[in-house]
Amino acid sequence: MTFNKTDDAHGFNGKIFTFITIFELIIVGIYAFKKEWYEYLLPFWYLENPILQKIGWAFLFTSLILVWISQSQMSTSWRIGIDEKNKTKLVINGMFSISRNPIFLGIIIANIGLFLVIPNAFTLLIISLSTISINTQIRLEEEFLKREFGDEYIKYAKKVRRWL
């Protein structure tokens, strides 16, 4: 974890990321262990059907595989946040030859999957907050990667799209 504790954009985004993670765990915990509280999450009952739930589980499983493969391919270059102290290499092969952000893509797919499995106002809020936070983090990381790797990153960014 390399989010800093300062009040800059990177530190603030780290706090948002932490909040979203804890919030997500609370919602899943309520759904799994306190069904009688679930009504307070404002469920979208019209989206509660077995087909959407199966699609949601498929998204969750797909995201798990995508994130695992992508993190494995990053190897020792993988960080959460921007690490200005430790130098790494720019990873451009494997999943990163298809998307510059396969891990973030996996997280967004997981959040959509969670919403399809547990459709309520709060899982929709998680998608919204997470999408804003991830897009902010991507832009912060892109600025860092331009400074860190210069032309190598700029050429890579022209060749490989941000998402797909």
Quick structural gist:
With 164 residues, this protein is mainly α. 63% of the residues lie in helices and 0% in strands.
Characterise this structure:
This protein has 164 residues and is an all-alpha fold. The chain is built from five helices and no strands. The protein has helices at 9-33, 50-74, 102-117, 121-149, 151-159. Helix 1 runs antiparallel to helix 4 (121-149) and helix 2 (50-74) packs antiparallel against helix 3 (102-117). The radius of gyration is 17 Å and the shape is globular. The relative contact order is 0.16. The mean pLDDT is 93.
Describe the protein's topology.
Elements: H1 9-33, H2 50-74, H3 102-117, H4 121-149, H5 151-159
Helix pairs in contact: 1-4, 2-3, 3-4, 4-5
Average residue-wise pLDDT? 93
Q: Give the percentage of residues in beta strands.
A: under 5%
Alpha carbon gap, first and last residue:
26 Å
Quaternary state of the chains: single chain
Classify the secondary structure makeup into a structural class: mainly alpha
Low-confidence stretches: none
How large, in whole angstroms, is the Cα Rg?
17 Å
**Element string (H = helix, E = strand):** HHHHH
The share of residues in helices is 55-70%
* H/I helix tally: 5
For the largest beta-sheet, the strand count, sense and barrel status come to: none
Query: How many strands in all?
Result: 0
The geometry reads as: globular
